[in-house]
Amino acid sequence: MIDRTMKLVVLGKTGFIGKAILDHYQALETHEIRGFNSSKLDLTSPKAANDLAGILDDQTVLLIAARAGKNSDPLKTFQQDIAITNNIARAIAISPVKKCVYFSSIAVYGEAVENTNISEETETAPTSLYGISRMAGEFALKSATEKLGLALTIFRPCMIYGPGDRVFPYGPDLFLKCALEEAPVKIFGEGTEMRDYLYIQDLVKVTEHFVQNDQPGTFLLGTGESRSFLNIIECIKEITQKNIKPEKIKQTQPKINQKLNVSKLINAFPGLSFIPFSEGMRKTFEHVKI
Length: 290
Prior knowledge:
Number of helices: 9
CATH class of the domain at 7-161 and 198-224 and 258-274: Alpha Beta
Order of helices and strands: EHEHEHEEHEEHEEHEEHEEHH
Largest sheet: 6 strands, parallel
């Protein structure tokens, strides 16, 4: 049964994840929902905690998908990411909410870690500023919510793909973009490394389930199935009917295979199914063609 008294606040409303969640709930019209980006609410500002606290109340579900914008100084991005989650934690302390959902990342385990059974119990060991900032965000929000006895759900997603991606990290959306623009599709080494990829609407579906149900804790977000970069390119070739010849770039880092153990997520969301990768890529392709 839908709890219509809940109000949703999405932080990072113009980002890939935030926009997808906001669009979904606006279309449903089941809850009052508000979205904020940096132009409406600068979460790096010294007064951000008070400004955000004025928006929150005990019926608010706070969905945290905000992060610093990219700039040429990685340390500045890192400082801003830390400031954002610290200010959110301070705002919650001032004005407690009903529950929080925080989008972290599997980067907290380290980007160059060979592991074909990553679970929530796997030791965290971030190796990048981004991974460290996500880990720090988890700790800041845990500290704030635990003191007040508030529910906090932390999601650690793998790479998300699908319509609406405007960043195009190395992976499915970038490969598709290059193929459609007749640009070289570049892969490191042989392109045989294995990774998990989650379609954006599957992330939205999971988020909706956790918003509606009280299931605090930390959860990996992924399908539990990994595929190679070469497999992704073959899929794109079939969908676009383009003769894509990958351009191989020298691989300077060791080959790393990763696979997620998503049994905890499946147990929390019985009956959860994922859009097959080929279908997700086809939907992405159809969206781009419009």
